[in-house]
Design goal:
single chain; alpha+beta; 4-stranded mixed β-sheet; two-stranded antiparallel sheet; 2 helices; 17% helix
């Protein structure tokens, strides 16, 4: 089963298995397992590109996992999707119409309010 996210490298259509982030202050590239959520300042890589990753001269590559294997959705992911579909298919309860109040009179700083039905 393919990952939902694809490799960030141009022209690559393989599923992503790893996430690459940079720590500029330490001149370090960190390559770890695929992050749960796609982040704007990280790159998702397929197994081939993760394995062949090199860093610029003077930079260090930290690999948090030695092997990156493409995995499909977990059992929990499938249950969450099924629950979301069930919830979307349930009929919605209608919210009661708000009662409109009109001022019926005043006594000093107090106001007498009357609803639509009275």
């Amino acid at each position: 089963m393919r990952s939902v996210r694809q490799c960030s490298r141009p022209v690559c259509i393989s599923g992503a298995v790893a996430t690459l982030t940079y720590v500029y202050s330490d001149s370090t590239a960190v390559l770890g397992p695929l992050a749960r959520l796609a982040e704007p300042h990280s790159y998702d890589l397929c197994a081939d590109h993760a394995e062949r990753l090199t860093a610029p001269r003077g930079w260090e590559v930290v690999r948090l996992t030695p092997d990156f294997v493409e995995v499909g959705p977990s059992h929990d992911d499938l249950l969450a999707l099924a629950d979301a579909v069930r919830e979307a298919g349930r009929p919605r309860r209608r919210e009661p119409e708000p009662v409109r109040l009109a001022e019926a009179g005043r006594r000093g700083h107090l106001r007498v309010l009357r609803g639509d039905g009275s």
